[in-house]
């Protein structure tokens, strides 16, 4: 069945002691439960799997995805913010969201949609954002399909222009994803991909073109007007830097 998949993971859980883990898990489930209730999802109607320091969930097909990328995210953010007020060790989470065909084989959820939701949550850009921005309690990462078909349409609590796009490359995954920190105009996205503001496929928006780089099989990412990131290139002696010659190639 085609379902919306959510994978949430607690940041830095490996550094917590047993008592802190117990409190963190309780707060995580409470925050997810409050978020579900805000969009009319009753307890027990969500397929939810415990992942120790995280939760994997698949929503019923009749749950409007616009509610999940809107009110659900907003309520989850507010719940985490309230929980963290005055706490020395805040509960911080990364959440990957995707939609697609999902199979419940009686042992758990399987399918490409599930794999991608987990990859988005655990991606290098997502981890880098949370490492660089210690004051961020919640990071949302949605698939390109979900952004273009749901988020970009907007709606109450939906902030399509507050997303930034970056490439997620891990194992067999090579996808564009959209990163969002609630209540912030744009999250910082690290060097794993171009990070330009959302709002649709217009000039200066979205991830860079990927082109084969002669001789090294690498890829060149054009990041704005003045910078390029080149992967897999061979740099010879005498190198002093890259210069943009106005044609999209390093001089």
Task: Report on this structure.
- It is a single chain.
- The chain has five helices and 13 strands.
- The protein is of the alpha+beta class and 251 residues long.
- It has one domain: Alpha-Beta Plaits (2-Layer Sandwich), CATH 3.30.70.
- It has an eight-stranded mixed beta sheet with strand order 2-3-1-4-7-9-8-10, sandwiched between helices.
- A hairpin with a 3-residue loop joins β2 and β3 (54-58).
- α1 (18-38) packs across α2.
- Residues 177-227 are annotated as: Disordered.
Main attributes of the structure:
251 residues; alpha+beta; Alpha-Beta Plaits; eight-stranded mixed sheet; three-stranded antiparallel sheet; disordered C terminus; A/G_cyclase; Guanylate cyclase domain-containing protein
């Amino acid at each position: 069945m085609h379902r919306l998949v959510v994978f949430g993971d607690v940041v830095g859980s490996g550094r917590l002691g047993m008592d802190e883990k117990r409190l963190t898990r309780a707060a995580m489930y409470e925050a997810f439960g409050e978020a579900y209730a805000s969009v009319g999802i009753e307890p027990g109607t969500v397929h939810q799997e415990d992942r120790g320091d995280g939760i994997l969930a698949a929503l019923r097909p009749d749950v409007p995805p616009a509610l999940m990328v809107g009110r659900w995210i907003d309520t989850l953010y507010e719940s985490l913010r309230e929980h963290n007020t005055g706490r020395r060790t805040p509960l911080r989470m990364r959440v990957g969201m995707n939609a697609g065909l999902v199979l419940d084989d009686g042992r758990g959820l399987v399918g490409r949609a599930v794999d991608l939701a987990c990859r988005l949550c655990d991606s290098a850009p997502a981890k880098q954002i949370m490492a660089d921005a210690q004051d961020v309690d919640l990071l949302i990462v949605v698939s390109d399909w979900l952004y273009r078909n749901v988020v970009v349409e907007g709606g109450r609590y939906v902030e399509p222009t507050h997303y930034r796009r970056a490439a997620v490359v891990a194992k067999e995954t090579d996808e564009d994803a959209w990163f969002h920190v609630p209540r912030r105009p744009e999250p910082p996205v690290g060097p794993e991909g171009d990070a330009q503001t959302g709002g649709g496929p217009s000039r200066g928006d979205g991830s860079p073109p990927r082109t084969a780089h002669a001789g090294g099989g690498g890829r060149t990412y054009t990041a704005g007007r003045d910078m390029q990131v080149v992967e897999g290139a061979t740099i010879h002696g005498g190198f002093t830097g890259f210069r943009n010659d106005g044609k999209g190639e390093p001089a």
